[in-house]
Structures are given as C-alpha cells and as structure tokens.
Amino acid sequence: MNPEITFDTFGTLSSMNDWHTISPEKAIELLNSDASSGLSDDEVAQRRKYFGKNELKQTAGRSKLSILWDQFTNIMLIMLMAIAIISAILDLRHSNFPKDSIAIFTIVILNGILGYVQESKAEQALAALKRLSSSYVKVVREGVTQQLDAEELVPGDIILLEAGVQIAADGHLLEAQNLQVSESTLTGEATAVTKDADLILGEDAPLGDRLNLIFKGTQVAKGRAKAVVTKTGMETEIGLIATMLQTVETEPTPLQQRMTQLGKVLVGGSLSLVVLVTVAGLIKSGWQIFEEILETSLSMAVAVVPEGLPAVVTVTLAIGTQKMIRRQALIRKLPAVETLGSVTTICSDKTGTLTQNKMIVQQVCTNSFNFEVTGTGYQPTGEFQGENHNLLEKEPEISKLLEACIFCNDALLQCSRKTSQKTAIWSILGDPTEGALLVLAGKAGLFKEDLERNRPRLGEFPFDSERKRMSVIISNSDSDSPYVMFVKGSPELILERSLYIQISGKFQPITKQHRQQILNQNTHLASIGLRVLGLAYKPLAEIPSANTEEENEQELVWLGLLGMLDAPREEVKQAVVNCLHSGIRPVMITGDHPLTAMAIASKLNIANANEQVISGQEIAKMSATELEQAVKQVSVYARVAPEHKLRIVKALQKQGEFVAMTGDGVNDAPALKQADIGIAMGITGTDVSKEASDMVLLDDNFATIVAAIEEGRVVYDNIRRFIKYILGSNIGEVLTIAAAPLLGLSSVPLSPLQILWMNLVTDGLPALALALEPAEPNVMSRPPYDPKESIFARGMGLYMVRIGIIFALLTIVLMVWSYNHDLDSANPNHWKTMVFTTLCLAQMGHALAVRSDTRLTIEMNFFSNPYLLSAIALTTVLQVLLIYVTPLRNFFETSILSFTDLLICLGFSLLVFVWVEMEKLCQRYFFKK
Hints:
Layout: H1 7-15, H2 24-31, H3 41-51, H4 64-71, H5 75-93, H6 99-119, H7 125-130, E1 136-141, E2 144-149, E3 158-162, E4 170-182, H8 184-187, E5 193-194, E6 213-214, E7 219-231, H9 237-247, H10 254-285, H11 290-304, H12 309-326, E8 329-331, H13 336-339, E9 345-348, E10 355-365, E11 370-373, E12 384-385, H14 396-407, E13 412-418, E14 423-429, H15 432-442, H16 448-454, E15 457-464, E16 469-475, E17 483-489, H17 491-496, E18 498-503, E19 506-509, H18 512-527, E20 531-540, H19 549-552, E21 556-568, H20 570-581, E22 585-589, H21 594-603, E23 613-615, H22 616-621, H23 624-630, E24 636-638, H24 642-654, E25 659-663, H25 669-674, E26 677-681, H26 687-691, E27 695-697, H27 702-742, H28 752-762, H29 764-770, H30 796-821, H31 830-849, H32 866-884, H33 886-892, H34 899-928
Helix pairs in contact: 4-6, 5-6, 5-11, 10-11, 11-27, 11-28, 12-27, 14-15, 20-27, 23-24, 27-29, 27-30, 27-31, 29-32, 30-31, 30-34, 31-32, 31-34, 32-33
C-alpha cells in the first residue's frame, strides 16, 4: 500500500461512478487500502484534508429578515404605504388625528406578517436527509477494529456491517454472508435486496441492481458483511440527492403568479386613473383646489387596492386544507391547495400508491390444474377459480402444495378485531412474500398455528442468496416416511433438482415434456408481471444433519408454481377513470421490473399492454430533447433512478404539463420538490420526502390525490368567484370617487377610512363566505384550466369592469340626487352617508348573484351556503350600526338616515342584483341561439 497517494488520484476516485463494474480486489487496489488492516492514521488524515467530513452540507438559504423585508416589497403594499404617508401629512397639516394613516399602516403590517408566516418556515428536507446518517460505525484501521463517529469515515476505510446497522457511506462489498439490505430510501422498493460481493456488473446496471455495492442511508436487514468505503459525504448517492434538492428552484405557484399580475394591473390602473383625475381637476379648477384633488386621488388609490384580499385568499386556502384533511390529504404549503386544481399530469409511484403494498397469490399452476385465486389484501377469503373450483382445495396435489406454503414459511398471519365494528383485521408479521403464501392457504381453510401444533418444524436449511431457496423438515403423518422436507424458491433451480412430479396425490418420474410445460408456465407468469415461486417436497427417513443442504436438496417431488403480485387497490381503477374523464393524465414511475410495472398499469388503464415502457437505462442514454418528445407518449417508466425521476418531471414541465409527483423514498425528494405539486406518502413516506413535498397522503392512496384535485378545483373556482365580487365592487367605488370632482361636487364622497371598511368588512365577510360555496356540478367533468391563464381569463376581466361601471352609474345617480337634495341641509355628511350605504348594500346583492355564472339565484339551493346568508345579514347589521350608534357614527363620519333614505339606498342597491341576474338570462338566450 502506497502511503503517498496524490490529490490527483483522490480526484479520480471522487469522480468514479462505475464501482459496480470491478471486483472487490480491484476496488481495494484503486483505493490503495488493505482488506485486513485498513488504513493507517496518517492515510486517514491525508484523505480527510481532501474529502472532508462524511456529512451532508447545506447551502445558505434566505434569512428570516430577508423574508420579512420581501413582504413589504409587494407593489400594492408600497402604494398603500405611500398613501398613508401623504394622508398623515395632510391630516397633521390641518391638526387632525391621522386615523386614516394609522388604519392603512395597520393593514399593511398585518398583510406583511401574514405573508411572513406563510413563507418563513425553513426548508427541512436536507435536515431530514441528515437524520438518515448513521452516528457510529465499526471500522478496521491499522489492523484494529474500532467504533468511530460516522463523520470520520474516508474513502478506503474498511467497515463491518451486521443486521440492524444503518450504512454510513457508499462502498464496495468485500465479503457478504447472507446479506440483505433495505434500500427503500433510495429505490422506493420495500423488499430487501440480497447482496453479492463477487458480482461484476455492466456499466448500465441501474442503481437498484448494483448488488455488489452498499449505499449511505440504507439499512442492513439480515446477515453480515465487510466493505471498503468508496464515497463519502456529498459524493454518496444520498449526497447527490441532497445536491439535487438544493439546486431545484422553487417556482411561484399559479395563484402567486396571478396575484402578482393582479397587483400590477390594479396599481397601474390606479395610478393612471389618479393622473387622469388630477390633470382633469387642475385643468378645470386650477391649483387652488390641488389639496382637494389630492384627497380625491388618495381615496381612489385606497379604493382600488383590495386590502382584505390577501387575508381572504389565505383563509380560503386554510379552509381548503381542512376539507382536504377530511379526505386524507394533508397540505403542507397553503398555495398547494389551489395549485392542485391546475394539475394536468399525475406521476405516481406504483408500490403502495397504486397498489396495496401487499403481495397476493393470483395464479396457481400444478401439473393437473391452472387456476386463479380471488381476494384482496391479507384477508384469507377468496375463491379458487378453475374447473371444479368448489373442490380444488381438496385435490391431493393442491392440498400438498398448500402444506408447503404453510410449513416452508417464517411469517405469521395474524387476526385482530375492531371492537366497535366486529370486523376482522388481518396483518402479516414477517416477509410479505411469505405472508402471501399463508393467505393463500387460509383461503382453503388451512392455518399455520393449526398445522404446526401437531407437526412442528424439526430442522431447516435457511434461505441463501446463492442457492435461492429455503427448506424445512417437518414430521410426516405418512408411516412410510416419518419426515418430509418442503422446499420453496427459484422455479428454475428447484426444477433442476426435481426427479418426480405429483399427480393426483401420487408422484411419478418427471418427463422432458413435464419440464418444458413447467418452464413455459413460469415464463408466462413472469411475462404478465407476476413474481413466481416454485414449490417441491421430499419424503425423508431421518432428519438430515446441518450444512448438508446440497446432498439433501436432490431428487425432489415437484408440486407447482405460484404467481403473486402486489395487486392494485380496488378504488384506484375508478380514480384513474375519473382522472382521464377530467383531462388529467396518470403516469407510473417505478423502480420495479418493466413487466411488473406494465401488468399493473394495464389493469388500471394507465396504459395498454402493448404500449412502450421506458427503463432508467434508456432514459440515461436520452438527450433532454429526446426525453421531452418521449414523455408525450409514454405512461410507464420502470427501473428508474432518482435523477431519472427528476428528468421526467422536468421534461413534462417543458411540454407545458402541470405535474403532480408522488413519492415515499429519499430518492423521490428532488422530483417532489421540482414538481408543481409534490405529494409524499404519509404511512410509508420518509421524513425527507415529506419535507420536500407540498402535500402528504395520509392513506397513501392514489384515489386521495384525485379527491384533492377536485377540492383544488373548487378552491380555484371560489377564489375567482370572490375576486370577481371584490374587484367589481372596488371598480365601482373608484369610478364613483373619480366622478365627484368632475361633476363639481364639493368634496370626496368616501373617506379612506370608509373605503377600508368596505374593502375589509363589506367585501371581506361575504368574500370569505363565497369561499365556502359548494362545487359546481361539472367540476370534475371538464379539463383543467390552463395554469398559465391570466386571473382575468375567460371573461372575468370584462365582467369586473362591466359590473364596476353598473355599480358606479347607479351610485353616481344616487350621489347627484342626494347631493342636490341636501344643498340646504345643515349636515354635509348626509349625502355621503347615502353613497356609502348604497355601495355597501349593493355589494350584498352582488354576493348573492355572483354565486353562479350561469344559474339564476332562484334556481339554486338558497341554503346550500348558509355562511353567505349569515355574512350578508351580519354585514348589513354592522353597516346600520355605523349610521345609528353614536361612537361609530362619529368615528366613521356618517350621519343618521331616515327610514325613507334607507329604502332609497336599498332600492338603488338592489338594481345591481337585478342587473347581474338579467345578464345571466341574456347569456342563456344568446348561447342557445
């Protein structure tokens, strides 16, 4: 071993990614280490200078002060602050208390705090990733085995592994004894992988098939091993995921983009109108009334900004999150509620999301019988469907096969009961594949505890990755042979060792035709995506000695084949239909075998059985442009690595798709963060995937995503509904204020404080109630709206301007009449109070009419939204209190109205409701024509 290894060599090792293509001896040689004695302290110190600590590093993010500052750079808040400052100067100049300015500044601060609370939660995905790192590790250094902090590992270190250990770095196996590693954090597949130190693989072997390597953050499920560290820190596979997480840029959601656009339009429109009114006023009356014109401009600017809108949007999204929790979807980031409604493509993992994450035996093939088995989950209820299926389980060769399923098995099938419903709940303790065999036997009325009571296990040859089979020795009821050995494992390898075949309870020599028939059956089952096991047995005269499996696992009697599958969830098929009906395309992205992936996809109608499946190996060879073209057609991706998932999501987004991505493993985190909506699994998901996601499925069910999308569409519809309501009213206010000086009125009809009252209370409360409007009947029978559409799309902008003009015309007529009527009045605020009251009451009628774009109010269930009725009643009462309660009247500068005045205000305000309803009738008439 050369102690003077150079930094150039370190650089080569750091960039090397094909460790799986070399032998253990070659790995030791390249790393300049020693398999028995490890590295010396001097070598460790030298390598640490180059490689640093074995830890995940985090780049600096936004500070909380920066996030707070950003809240006050919003263009609408900047304009409000400017208004507040000018208003304060004018009030102080006339020795008035600046209540308008204080009210405006209060709104600005509250909106800033609201935005800060939403954004200030720091990204915790990397912190969760760090928690996967092992604290301590057994290392051989200078010939001595010692326990060290995992951060001290360097490439070339020799580490020792055993069951239960979390692997602290990437490495190449040197020795492995029955080693099984759970790599679900990286590959997403729950089944532990059997490792083999002596394998040498091709360069294009996907991550999940690199059986001679180990990876940081995974866990040893079984066995022992020795390995040499090849990668540490950010160079490991988990480190690469951390890098991808930190390089994924978070894009604004459609709602955030629309609200930004809305702010720019409102401020631009407001400033244009202010300039127009100011210039017109100066031309008409000169500089002597500049202060009055300035007050008018300030009122207009306050009127155009919907101060209550951010709060209403936030509360609406929060209400949406509560509804989604009831549908088993937990929203982590508020804007995701609305964003869900824009989803055009759902990229879903297979295991546990589309499937039950429970292996189920679906096909049984013996020499005489081929039949299917029905049933779901671990419930031992189902039928054997074949010829004479009512008697199948009684056939000697099938009953013998079921005995093999029970005895050659280390799992347990357990039953508990829900005391409230008296419903049996079945679960598996142990390997899911072995559990599936117990469920199969249970469907025939055979249970492990019953059989083992009289026939205990007397010996065994445990599963071995080289033998790929397991054998157990059981006492036999047959007097000719007191013992029997049952064997299960790889069909090909067990068939090689079988000399006999059982037919109708008797065994006879196996022929060439028998072997070919069995191999054909095996190929067929594998081709439809089933995992296949072979079963055999052998009568014994005595219990064999330990370590004699090679000589005893010979001359077996072949029993049959079992084909099993992680079956689709029953409700997912309908959910996929709903997706397709709603213009949403489901896509499967899995680490599983292509055949298995296509078998599930075709059953769920995600893809046709003859459609193309793209593997991770193929994706790795594609350019970005090629992949962007492929994603248009391909709906199933198999054997994918983390970087492949990220590339698929990016390619779909390049095609204009709005992507929801599901995932549960660490490997999914970058793609979850990149997706427009990242959806983590609540039951099987890692902390990393949850922290990188926007939404967590509490039941890990694809159908829940579709339910959440429906809720998202409802939220978006309601947001458009109350924006239409709020801005239609605001435009009416602005035009009314702008008209006052142009018509020669002596002062502004509305003070900034009164405008704030309308924008926050008479706008805000009904707007919140409109957020609770039930879904339209067609919400899931139409394609998703374009996520890039403007907030003013589909006629909404024209509607707001049109209704705003109607608001203004009606109010201006009332204003001119009441102003002239009050010329001799001693109370100058009387006509202003009538204008103020009319605008507020007109908003109540508008709130009722705006519930639907097409249906008349009388055609709708009047009580389907009781919150709106309550909000209208409460707001009306509050408005009356401002007029008749002395402290409120003084503060808001209103005056008492007579009953006749109130009726006049009510009559004018009802005309807005009538107008909107008449518009619906006209649209219906012209649409029919």
